[in-house]
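pinging the channel bc i need a second pair of eyes. not urgent but kinda urgent?? the chain im working w is below, pasted from the shared doc
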Amino acid sequence: MITTVCSAQFSEIGAGIGGFNYAGDLMRGYQIENVKPGILGYYKMNLDNIFSVRASLTGGFISGSDDKPIDPFATNRKGSFHSTIIEAAGLIEYNFLDFKADKVHIRWSPYMFTGLGVFTFIGGDQDLNGTSNVQLALPFGGGFKYAINPNLTLNLEIGIRKLFTDHLDGYSDGDITNKNYQYGNKYDKDWYNFVGFSISYTIWDIPCPYDFY
């Protein structure tokens, strides 16, 4: 009798560091000088060499200000905010290249991801106007993976979060007849993004032993 074992790279655990950035009523686009530190950890199940599902937890700091006013209104507002942000998300990843296949001699692949997340922002003095500081987010983005060896993979990722709240920065709709300028555009939802480096460790499973007689 000869016993043959099939091994599979079923799951991964990973951790990394990166930076949060905010865009909303106080700031537009990506402002590199406004990047604040963050960390992440995740557990990933590889459905095959192309698709994976991932549970992640990300946390760090986020802020914004009118220090570089985007319009005359912001010049008078002189607003700012600082918060701690914590996000939990479920994601699905798609690798463009089958870089972990035994017979393919490449060790890298670009990838993209999307999913659903929940985040909270705490420690700031924002006016939530009766809304909750726990909100939904739609994460999406992409990155680049490099397999150092069969167990370790380096990841560079850029992720954008579409939000459904305008209260991350504390400036939303207000009484426009009150000329105190301490409000924003309620139709312009806030966003944040996270750019990070991580390293993951592949846990090799043995899911399919079988015998030849």
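so The CA atoms of residues 186 and 209 lie 59 Å apart. and Residues 1-5 have pLDDT under 50 and may be disordered. — does that match what u expected or am i reading it wrong
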